[in-house]
Automatic annotation (TrEMBL):
One of its GO terms (biological process) is xylan catabolic process. Residues 6-105 form the Alpha glucuronidase N-terminal domain. The lineage of its organism: Bacteria, Bacillati, Bacillota, Clostridia, Lachnospirales. Homodimer. Pfam families: Glyco_hydro_67C (PF07477), Glyco_hydro_67M (PF07488), Glyco_hydro_67N (PF03648). Keywords: Carbohydrate metabolism, Glycosidase, Hydrolase, Polysaccharide degradation, Xylan degradation. This is Xylan alpha-1,2-glucuronidase. Its EC number is 3.2.1.131. It is an enzyme of class 3 (hydrolase). The keyword Cell cycle does not apply.
Length: 660
């Protein structure tokens, strides 16, 4: 299958700047990473200026100079760009820093940032910037919305030119780690830690290393039983411990630069230490000890909850689960364990409060997990640019008592998380021609990487950078596409589940409405709507979840009058006539936002249509088709939600619109 170049198109920029810089490049460095940096420069200059840059063996009078320096402020991955005496100098402490510098330079040219007086220093503010692919060995993708896997075909690992282009995309935005297989490790994927797959994994590791990307693998916690034939996977059992030590030794003999493993344990049917009466730290530490001699890391997910709960039992709150299991283990994890915590307490809904473990774990390494695969946010059919949402999360204050107390401080290592950790995203790519199905969904892929590198970039800056590199250079295109992206999260929120209640999606598939679909099932995601009201009581009178935050957040959420509207139904059960802070009643707000959401999508389609003659027809029509499906989806949500709550509440829409 053929594929496109996403934001690495390098469109012609003729006549814009002094092309003379891009004729010669000089560096003393050798090796695979430098070769890749030079190859990128050649490709880009060829496409942008019609002539490829040449490597020369002396400092040119005009040109690019890549050199290693020794500057503490640049750390491992930072770089400096400077234009002086006819040279564009790219300086870094490491070759990977130089590669990142080259990508920055090319991005600035593609975005036509003024080159004169160029002088900048960039250092990533998070250490680990990671993608998690949920690709299965049979080529399918769990929650994949853009074709099948390009990592796996017929139970084999594929390493080809597309894999290289994937690595280039990651490096170009500074993503430095990736997990290629699904966290639900089943079938032959368990065998990635055996001879069967070492040869192809070696090729992959070698390729990724040359782009500064650490390969991680998802691990089956019960591999010692499934591969090793042991009777148990008890983390305190000597034979289990010995098996893993042997296994990790073998793995690292073959793949010495492997980053480590990601583990989903005791969750949604996956095996884990609970089976043996042990806790999550026992399980994680057992693996961490086995991998420590090789500097490997165990990334242990906190998405642990009882997915078999009885919906009639109102004492269980899934939202509390991760906190209840992990808070008391703070300090119990070894140094080479990193906990990976979903951004919110439920599961990647369009809106959730942040997970209260952030700010509470003070002695444990941890990173945040977000999802750019739009499982619950329109599945890459509906447009939903998630960067504004991630920005809100990063900017949230935890009130943990330290001076820098936002989540981004924590992910940067400025508070709580003293080692300085990072962020991971469930990836949204597949083998479709344009990588992400909907062309506009690539803005989330790009944007995640950029935000992972620099929490201070704005959603708009990121959107604009991406647009310049993706679409033809026209003011109107830049303006319209960025307005579309920036309104899209809000629009999606309007026509789907209201006021932070979440879910109400078609069970299993998670696209389209089914209001009671999960209400009477085992998954623990309720809305509790009846004739009188709606919402889950998570105050002290209910599940007590609101108290898990530090004050003043705990008080703000606890009190129905101060709880922000957008999260009201997540925290409170209220009547349909309850007055929101925006002065509307809950029911009227539901009607209004749903009608508005549909109108927004209609407007988005008109905006997109206006670009018909400014965009390549293939891209234009691909996106247009998605917008039409989005409109159907929005109408269906609006129709079902409004009818459902009209019939439940028997309260009329004060604007008299058609509700069934
Ligand atoms: C969601 C998703 C699953 C996934 C799980 C996880 O529940 O629907 O497909 O396995 O998250 O994050 O592990």
């Amino acid at each position: 299958m053929s594929w496109e170049q996403a934001w690495l198109k390098y469109q012609a920029v003729k006549g814009y700047l002094d092309e003379a810089y891009f004729k010669e490049v000089y560096t003393l460095e050798e090796g695979k990473i430098i070769e890749n940096a030079l190859a990128e420069l050649r490709l880009a200059t060829n496409k942008m200026f019609g002539a490829a840059i040449e490597r020369v063996n002396h400092l040119p009078t005009k040109g690019i100079h890549l050199s290693l320096v020794s500057k503490e402020c640049l750390a491992k991955e930072g770089f400096q760009l400077e234009e002086k005496n006819g040279l564009i100098a790219i300086m870094a402490n490491t070759q990977i820093g130089l590669l990142y510098g080259v990508y920055e330079l090319l991005r600035r040219v593609a975005c036509k940032n003024k080159m004169a007086l160029l002088s900048l220093t960039r250092v990533p503010d998070k250490e680990l910037r990671m993608l998690n692919h949920w690709d299965n060995i049979d080529g399918s993708i769990e929650r994949g919305y853009s074709g099948d896997s390009f990592f796996f075909e017929n139970k084999q690992i594929v390493v080809n030119e597309r894999t290289r282009d994937y690595a280039r995309l990651l490096a170009s935005v500074g993503i430095n780690a990736t997990v290629i297989n699904n966290v639900n490790v089943k079938q032959e994927a368990t065998e990635f830690i055996t001879n069967t797959y070492f040869e192809s994994l070696k090729k992959l590791v070698e390729l990724f290393d040359s782009y500064g990307i650490k390969l991680f693998l998802s691990l089956n916690y019960a591999a010692c039983m499934e591969l090793g034939g042991l009777k148990s996977a008890d983390p305190l059992d000597e034979t289990v411990i010995a098996w893993w030590h042997e296994r990790m030794k073998l793995v690292y003999q073959e793949l010495p630069t492997l980053g480590g493993f990601l583990v989903k344990a005791d969750s949604e049917g996956r095996p884990g230490p609970f089976t043996y009466g042990r806790n999550q730290a026992d399980g994680a530490n057992m693996l961490a000890k086995a991998i420590a001699p090789y500097n490997g890391i165990i990334i242990w997910r906190c998405f642990v909850y009882n997915c078999q709960q009885d919906w009639r039992d109102r004492t269980i709150d899934r939202a509390r689960a991760a906190y209840d299991y992990f808070y008391e283990l703070d300090g119990a994890f070894l140094d080479n364990v990193i906990l990976q915590i979903k951004n919110g307490p439920l599961d990647f809904q369009v809106r959730e409060p942040f997970m209260p473990l952030f700010g509470k774990l003070k002695k444990t390494n941890h990173i945040m997990e977000v999802q750019i695969a739009q499982e619950y946010t329109g599945q890459q059919i509906d447009l939903c640019y998630l960067i504004p949402w991630f920005k809100e999360l990063l900017d949230s204050r935890t009130y943990c008592g330290e001076e820098n107390d936002t989540i981004k401080d924590l992910l940067k290592g400025k508070c709580c998380n003293h080692f300085g950790r990072g962020i991971a995203a469930v990836a949204n790519t597949g083998n479709s021609e344009n990588w992400t199905g909907n062309d506009l969904a690539a803005a989330n892929f790009y944007g995640f990487g950029r935000l992972a590198w620099d929490s201070e970039l704005t959603s708009e800056e990121i959107a604009k950078e991406w647009i310049c590199q993706t679409f033809p250079d026209e003011e109107e295109v830049l303006d319209t596409v960025s307005r579309l992206l920036l309104m899209s999260w809000n629009t999606y929120e309007k026509y789907t589940a209201p006021l932070g209640i979440g879910f109400m999606v078609t069970p299993h598939y998670h696209y389209g409405p089914n209001i009671d679909g999960y209400e009477y099932s085992r998954w623990g995601t309720y809305h509790r709507a009846d004739h009188f009201g709606i919402g889950v009581d998570r105050t002290k009178k209910g599940t007590g979840y609101a108290s898990l935050y530090y004050p003043p957040l705990s008080q703000m959420y606890e009190n129905v009058d101060t709880c922000p509207d957008e999260l009201l139904l997540f925290f409170h059960h209220v009547s349909y006539n309850h007055i929101l802070q925006n002065k509307n009643t809950v029911i009227q707000h539901i009607y209004d936002t749903h009608f508005e959401g549909v109108k927004d999508v209609e407007r988005m389609i008109q905006m997109w249509k206006g670009l018909e003659h400014k965009l390549p027809s293939k891209e234009f029509h691909r996106v247009e088709a998605c917008f039409h499906k989005q409109l159907d989806n929005a109408k269906e949500w609006c129709d079902q939600i409004n009818s459902y709550f009209y019939r439940k509440s028997a309260i009329n829409d004060k604007r008299g619109r058609k509700i069934y």
